[in-house]
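Bench notes, afternoon.
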Amino acid sequence: MLPTSLRITDIPENGSKGFTCNGEKFFAVKKQNTVYIYKNFCPHIGVALEWIEDEFLDSSGTMIQCANHGALFVIESGACVAGPCSGQKLRAVNFSIAEDIICVAI
């Protein structure tokens, strides 16, 4: 596991936060005090999901949304349920938390 610059307290409740570790882009979502981490990579065209820094959720805050083509992903599983990559998934990242710092398995 590699430590990141991201602390659990940096992620707003019902919000998201992007970060980089070892040159790779990731993002975290916190929902009901549970954290989910995914590689910041759209399975449809292979680009980063956000246009605005740290904005990974749709306007309702209930789904992850790709800013490039509007695909919607379930926060808890990363499954795409709408858009051109329906049936595909975001790549979940294994992680641990040590003294409030997120460490990711790359």
